[in-house]
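Action item from last meeting closed. Structure (146 res):
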C-alpha cells in the first residue's frame, strides 16, 4: 500500500464502479473471448485424442481448463448485448431458461470429461469428449448464427 498514491487508488475505485455499465461491444467481445478459450481447448483436445500430436500427458490439464471455462458461459451471456460482429441470436434472451439449461449441459459434460481424462482410459475419454462436442453443437444449432 505504501506505493499506491491516493489519486491512483481513487482512480481504481472509479474504474471498479464503472464496470457495471459495460457497453454492448465490450460484452460481445468478452463472451467471444470466452468462447475462443473453449474452442482453443477443444482444438487441442481433438488433436491429442486423434493422435495427431504427442501431448497425451496434457490432456487432463486441457480437460480441467475446459471444465473451468464452461462455468463462465451462462454469466457471459446473462446481459443482453448484440452488435454487427456478434453471431448470437436474440432468442437467447427470449428463451433464457433453455439457453441456461444448454450451458448447464456443457458444464456437466465437461466435468465428466475432466474425470475421464484424469483416468487415462482412452475409450471413456473418446466417449466423454464426444458428449462435450454435442453440448457445444446443441447450443450453437439453436442460438448461434451459422
Ligand atoms: C449455451 C450455449 C453455448 C454453448 C454450450 C457453447 N457455445 Fe459457443 N457460442 C455460443 C454463442 C451464442 C456464440 C455466438 C457469440 C457471439 O458471437 O456473440 C458462440 C460462439 C462460439 C465461437 C465463435 C466465437 C467468435 O468470436 O465468433 C466459438 C469458437 C465457440 N462458440 C466455441 C464453442 C465450443 C468449443 C463449445 C463447447 C466446448 C461451445 N462453444 C459451447 C453459444 C454456446
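Sequence:
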Amino acid at each position: 500500500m505504501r506505493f499506491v498514491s491516493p489519486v491512483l487508488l481513487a482512480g481504481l475505485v472509479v474504474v471498479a464502479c464503472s464496470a457495471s455499465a459495460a457497453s454492448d461491444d465490450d460484452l460481445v467481445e468478452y463472451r467471444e473471448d470466452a468462447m475462443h478459450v473453449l474452442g482453443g481447448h477443444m482444438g487441442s483436445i481433438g488433436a491429442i485424442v486423434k493422435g495427431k500430436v504427442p501431448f497425451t500427458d496434457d490432456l487432463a490439464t486441457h480437460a480441467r481448463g475446459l471444465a473451468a471455462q464452461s462455468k463462465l458461459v451462462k454469466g457471459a451471456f446473462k446481459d443482453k448485448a448484440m452488435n454487427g460482429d456478434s453471431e448470437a441470436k436474440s432468442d437467447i434472451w427470449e428463451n433464457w431458461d433453455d439457453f441456461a439449461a444448454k450451458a448447464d449441459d456443457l458444464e456437466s459434460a465437461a466435468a465428466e470429461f475432466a474425470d475421464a481424462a484424469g483416468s487415462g482410459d482412452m475409450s471413456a475419454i473418446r466417449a466423454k469428449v464426444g458428449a462435450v462436442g454435442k453440448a457445444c453443437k446443441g447450443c450453437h444449432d439453436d442460438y448461434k448464427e451459422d
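Note appended to the action item: The chain has a mean pLDDT of 91.
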